[in-house]
Specification:
The complex is a heterodimer of chains A (222) and B (221). By secondary structure, chain A is an alpha+beta fold. Chain A contains nine helices and four strands. The chains are: A alpha+beta (222), B alpha+beta (221).
Chain lengths: 222, 221
């Protein structure tokens, strides 16, 4: 056992990708255990390793952590990415939760039936450009600082850069009317740990494709 | 301005109920402002009061907080219901997140189309009795303590009790195979602040009736 956190999930983004981002941003190396078959998944359940019979699973500091938000909160708290007090934490939580709602749409998008794909993409564009991005554009404009909360790099910044890149993959011009977010994107992408994560060969997973969708359905569908 | 937290939502459980539970459990009095029509929601949106155009919204300590998890986290931490260190917090978070998943199923039941209701009910019962309740039964059995985490009353206890009661409303004998959850339910229900919240006349909301579903849909859709 190496002492590094160990992530169990499919070999793709899904619900684990924010965890990979956060660990990487914190400069923490981790190992991955990829689920490829239903049998593997059923064995994990039988072994009693998955508290609620679900992945993501992250083995960290002697715990077998499940529930993505619990995992992310723990990592953020441990590596000082959660603000300096309760009020900064509250802001970070609000921002992260909002972004997570947007990311949920992106998460589900590859699983849309073909006839719904265009409509779902329009919904993502609508929400990104009318509900979520304007909020962060305004936050950055108003305080003029490099980071979203407390003039310090936090979980909120990591979540936002992940979301911006994910939306852009689907809608390349999405940041057109958001100059602050464009600058934010450049700034975050240049932070050493994030820059490293964005390079080929990192644990970052590629955009979901048909093969990924098939694998997920095969392993998890009842 | 009274200094009490002020909750903005419709007059029903939904995503605000867990927050009402948490404040009540902490012994914190709060005020409520109910959305009755779409116009009420639109007005709040136009005011710039809703960060992401959505409720729940809770005015607390000079903030207009949105996102129920963020609100729950803040209240839990402020009133010492979040464990004593990162690891206890991690346990509480895991337990609470799973309870939220079950809650979502319970909340969404009233909104299911008629032809899907029976199947949905079966899913609720299956998940509750096979996925979630056994975990908490085992936690209580393994440590033999009164509370889920760290031998101290926490948010996890509050949220679990809320969900146990909602599940029982759905199927009265749903706790039949879970003796420790039954005694947990009795024990936590007797904590003074919670006992008070469980009495008639408190700010606890009743389950959503079918006849009220259209009204709620009109506010949000």
């Amino acid at each position: 056992m190496s002492g590094k956190p160990r992530l169990t999930y499919c070999n793709g983004r899904g619900r684990m990708e924010p965890v990979r981002w956060l660990l990487a941003a914190a400069g923490v190396e981790f190992e991955e255990n990829f689920l490829e078959t239903r049998e593997q998944y059923e064995k994990l359940i039988k072994d009693g390793v998955l508290m609620f019979q679900q992945v993501p699973l992250v083995e960290i500091d002697g715990m077998k952590m499940v529930q993505t938000r619990a995992i992310l909160s723990y990592i953020a708290g441990k590596y000082n990415l959660y603000g300096k007090d309760l009020k900064e934490r509250a802001l970070i939580d609000m921002y992260v939760e909002g972004i997570t709602d947007l990311m949920q749409m992106i998460l589900m998008f590859p699983f849309s039936p073909p006839e719904a794909k265009e409509k779902n993409l329009d919904s993502i564009k609508e929400r990104a450009t009318k509900r979520y991005f304007p909020v962060f554009e305004k936050v950055l404009k108003q305080h003029g600082q490099d980071f979203l909360v407390g003039n310090k790099f936090s979980w909120a910044d990591v979540q936002l850069i992940e979301a911006i890149l994910a939306v852009e993959e689907n809608i390349p011009v999405v940041l057109l009317e958001f100059p602050q977010l464009q600058a934010f994107k450049t700034r975050m992408s240049n932070m050493p740990t994030i820059k490293k994560f964005l390079q080929p060969g990192s644990p970052r997973k590629p955009p979901p494709d048909e093969r990924y969708v098939e694998t997920v359905l095969k392993i998890f569908k009842k | 301005m009274s200094g009490k937290p002020k909750l903005h939502y419709f007059n029903g459980r939904g995503r605000m109920e867990s927050i009402r539970w948490l404040l009540a459990a902490a012994g914190v009095e709060f005020e409520e402002c109910f959305l009755e029509t779409k116009d009420d929601l639109t007005k709040l949106q136009k005011d710039g009061s809703l960060l992401f155009q959505q409720v729940p919204m809770v005015e607390i300590d000079g903030m207009k907080m949105v996102q129920s998890r963020a609100i729950g986290n803040y209240i839990a931490a402020k009133y010492n219901l979040y464990g004593k260190d990162l690891k206890e917090r991690a346990l509480i978070d895991m337990y609470v997140e799973a309870v939220i998943d079950l809650n979502e199923l319970l909340i969404s039941h009233a909104f299911q189309p008629a032809d899907k209701k029976e199947q949905h009910f079966a899913t609720i019962v299956d998940k509750a009795t096979n996925r979630y309740f056994p975990v908490y039964e085992k936690v209580l059995k393994d440590h033999g303590q009164d509370f889920l985490v760290g031998n101290q009353f926490s948010r996890a206890d509050v949220q679990l009790l809320e969900t146990l009661l909602m599940a029982e409303e759905c199927k009265p004998d749903i706790l039949a195979k879970f003796p420790l959850l039954q005694s947990f339910k009795a024990r936590i229900s007797n904590i003074p602040t919670i006992k008070k919240f469980l009495q008639p006349g408190s700010q606890r909301k009743p389950p959503l009736q079918e006849k009220d579903v259209p009204k709620v849909m009109k506010i949000f859709y």
